[in-house]
Amino acid sequence: MNENDRPAPQCATLEVPVDWNNPGGPTFGLQLARRTTTDKAARVGSLVFGPGGPGDSGVYRVREGVGRFSDNLRRHFDIVSFDPRGVAGSNPVRCSAALLAKAPSPIIKSQAQYDATIAYNRLLAKDCRKHTGPIFEHLDSLQTVRDLEAIRKALGDDKLTFHGSSYGTMLGSQYAEEYPQKVRAVVLESTVDHSLNTREFLNTQAESAQDSFDEFVKWCGRTTSCVLHEGDIRKLWADLLARADRGELPNPRDPKQALTPYTLSFLATKFLKDPSWPQLASALQALETSKPPVVEPNTPAGLGQNPMLVFCQDWNLPVRTYTEYARHQRRMARIAPEMKYPGGLIAVSTCLGSPLKVGNPQHRLDVHTEIPLLVTNALHDPVAGYNWATAVARQLGRHGVLLTYDGWGHGTYNSSPCSKALIDNYLIDQVVPARGLHCPAVEPAS
User: Fold this and answer.
1) 421 Cβ neighbours under 8 A, 6+ residues apart
2) Is the same domain home to 225 and 288?
3) Which GO terms describe its molecular function (predicted)?
4) Which of 35, 156, 160, 408 lies 20 to 30 Å from 387 when distance is taken between CA atoms?
């Protein structure tokens, strides 16, 4: 029997308020999924998984990707997750697909492009509000923290056992702020630092992306599994960025569309997240010999989902003029010569001129839990950098412990047997790892 099929997933809908500040107002259905423990006699309780993104489906994770969790965890816990509000089955943010297809590049080169981005963002917000309904104004993670508390109560657990990944770590850390007495154990894997201003947010993103690219280059220099030569990679990358800027680089997933410098960088980051270094090297080699695409207009019909707008309610990242935006871009290019267009750039550009209220603005964490939160991060993470993890650990003080995986990629649990064992012990038996503990790097498979 396939491990994903034993026991079978259970699905449910939990009615919660659209706005927790008005609990007697309209409600919507929050979608949940659960796989019960494989050993009822060993059951500790429920382990709630906080999906990342924003935009990842926790229901899909439980239904199709429960193998993420060790047999040991599945023996002791019911594995539970959910689609956060505005995502997948939980009243998703819907917008006109044709309008989404016209999204401007986050790389802004002129005052006219800056003005056009603001105009587009305001038009898109109006369109998405029309097709989504009133939840559109209540997507921030603090509202989702209230959803998480409702899930705990519905499960019947006295305290919450939680494992958040990437953007889902904001739920874990803010839940611990709001409900410290209800925390049994909270893991923050690939941690988001929700205390940064615009400059700090972009700088740390650029530093982390560049660090992972540099690690890829070093790997190519020490292995025969890389189809590229270490000394040629940076020149090849610069050539590919230039071709993408001229519209001459085909998108491998859709050869009738062109890669932009941002989407090329995004493509590379996806490989760096695993990390899938051999595949990245092969992809770059294929792009080097590719022919310019014959671009066909992309005008999809109907509605598409757009969970990215949660950024505009979680982050206040103002850029008041084109001159200021250009200054940010120049500074990132100095910090990260190859990865000067990190993923975080789109969070800033998406929210330029946004009419949405920031319901959950950045702040330093103020957590006072009985058991320390477990912060765990790879030393070389291209998305949620180690710089974020160390900052969050400092904010938590004695109420947090940082477990470092000395390797690569976005995530630690399934990258390192050492990390997995320590995280499992923390979640199952509440054994907190020693402070300053490091797990050795595991060389990515060739």
Assistant:
1) none
2) yes
3) hydrolase activity
4) 160
Q: How many domains does the chain have?
A: 2
**Helix, strand, or coil (residue 369):** coil
Q: How far apart are CA 228 and CA 314, in angstroms?
A: 40
Tokens of 398: 């004695």
Query: 246 and 161, same structural domain?
Result: no
Residue 7 scores a pLDDT above 90:
no
User: Are residues 42 and 171 located together in one domain of the fold?
Assistant: yes
Domain of 241 in residue numbering reads as 94-135+197-305+316-360
d(CA 249, CA 247): 6
Distance separating alpha carbons of residues 255 and 294, to the nearest angstrom? 8
Q: How far is CA 432 from the centre of its chain?
A: 25
Contact assessment for residue 386 and residue 380, using Cβ atoms and an 8 Å cutoff = yes
d(CA 421, CA 407): 16
DSSP string, 18-80: S-TTSTTS-EEEEEEEEE--S-GGG--EEEEEE--TTT--HHHHHHH-GGGS-HHHHHHEEEE
Whether 243 and 291 map to the same domain: the answer is yes
Residues 412 and 277 reside in one and the same domain: no
Tell whether 384 and 261 lie within a shared domain. no
